[in-house]
Chorismate mutase
Amino acid sequence: MNKAPELNQTRKQITALDKELLSLLSKRRDLSLDVARSKEIDVRPIRDTQREKELLARLVEQGREHGLDAHFVISLYQSIIEDSVLNQQAYLHGRANPEIQQQQSTIAYLGARGSYSFLAASRFCQRRQIDMIDLGCQSFDEIIKSVELGHADLGFLPIENTSSGSINEVYDVLQHTSLSIVGETTIEVGHCLLTKDGAGLDSIKTVFAHPQPISQCSHWLSQHPSLTLAYCSSSAEAMQKVIDAEDSSVAAIGSAEGGALYQLTAAENGLANQKINQSRFIVVARKAVAVPSQLPAKTTLIMATGQKPGALVETLLVLKAHNINMSKLESRPIPGTPWEEMFYLDVDANLATTELQQALKELERLTRFIKVLGCYPCETVKPTQLNNSQLVIEPNSSKESISTPSEDNDAPKFSKRYRQQNTQIELKQFNVGGSDFAAMQQVSLPIDKDVFATKVKQIKESGFQAVLLLDTTTASLSAIEIKEYCHLIDQAGLTSAVQIDSVNHFNETVKVADMIYLAGKEMYNEELLGLAGSVSTPVLLERNTMASTTDWLASANKILTQGNQQLILVEAGIRSFSNPEQLALDLAGLIEVLSESHLPVLGNVSYAVEDKLVCQQAKALKQLHANGVIINDNQLNCPEQQAELLHRLHQ
Ligand SMILES: C=C(O[C@@H]1C=C(C(=O)O)C=C[C@H]1O)C(=O)O
């Protein structure tokens, strides 16, 4: 047997390679800035998604030759491209606005070094090579005052978080400031339980934290009721309190990065309620900035409408008429005028465009008060994806434009008479109800986690967009275990659906799954249908093997009537008289449901025992303009065959 290389020796080689990788990444970034300089001269848009698609496709190919997984290559390059696009944006924005691109700037932010605001400000300055002089403040008011009075050049204010929503106090201070919004930046907020002297969770009695992290970690905190909470004015103050405490029974909620500045370590990670916990900050300055036309711009407005029916709708119709997308709408009370609201709008438009200028003029006539808070580069870089169904877009004619004269409010909610437009559900790559033909693979649990992690990568590589987890109850899995499976699905960039067959598991499952799946035997379970209708998680409703299409749609109506409109029907075969043991795809039923209902319909062909039948039925589903297919993981033998089928379905 060959002797294994010596560990230290191999690690030295990895260290040297990593150094090389970093130097190559830095060279790539320099080249990307050269591209930005050319785009400045040619006035070309910064983002070129066509170029990104070509680049990703080539890299996946080249990666394969080196034995690198396509999913890994894509996610790596999505991060590299995001960084490259943001650097180019920062460069061009700085060129157009030299005053915010000073070598040295004083930045006002909440708390002290180590707070999330500090981390956001540091990252913003780093990207712009600004030497940051930090001015920690005790409140949002103090941040605003520091910039207004010229003690600071820029102020950082957290405006919204993916777990706890909008930060009302910040919206309120914006009503009364002369400052302008000149930028935005989003950071990952990874909440940890920070302790000193290596103390573990068991020895902690008191947790110091700012109210925002407390609300963002409410689920975790409710699972640890013995911890006493002590509120602080910032995460940095919480960390300082832990340092100053006499014993190690205290902890702070904060980031691992911030904690490191205080020599605190993370005893627990991932405390936030949401998988993706991010905070968006706005940057304010005394002078407004201009956004070059090559950059995606966002404009924030505040306005108060008159107190008459439809006043807000009228203003929004102005945006519609000028084809301006509104990405956020928030309302806050106006101090001194009870029950009157100030509306905050983010629109995806540059203030310099004639469309927005025209819209603003029209809005002035419709409002009591209107003010532009600022126009700034939008920092959300939507990752470019490579996906079979996205590359080949098929028109889906049967489901479009049924000429129904008008919508009938008394018609059943599933019907096209009630709603003419097809229901479309989009969750990451999984898109049903539009022109895509979706593909989902079903996997029965339990399955070893490591095996599952490899499996989901293969599923993604074969071209599926979602994974359906079956038999969670039979496998007696806990909510935590289901969460782990869903997390692996999410990490692979896929959408998760989890089968629910009992009301007992309902609440925990909807928290962790992207979608829930009610199998045919649940089609008559009134209680479960009621629960599925009362949440906002999309539901897949499978047809019972003995049910008529009328019964199936009646069950669908029970879900829709409770409020949840994100419903997908799943045809999974019916019992035929010729061979009652073998389920058969009900073609007539499928055609009827597709023409009667606006709901998307998937075909689950997992009953098909022969590979040939799987392929034929999947193709039949596609030809009948169903919205996608569900295949079992043991069908078609190997991932390559499944990929081959999906490839043909997308042609
Ligand atoms: C570097 C460029 O700008 C952007 C960044 C890209 C990258 O980092 O590879 C690719 C396309 C653009 O969205 C370019 O246009 O080539």
About this structure: Residues 32, 35, 47-48, 51-52, 55, 81, 84-85, 88 surround ISJ (CB under 6 Å).
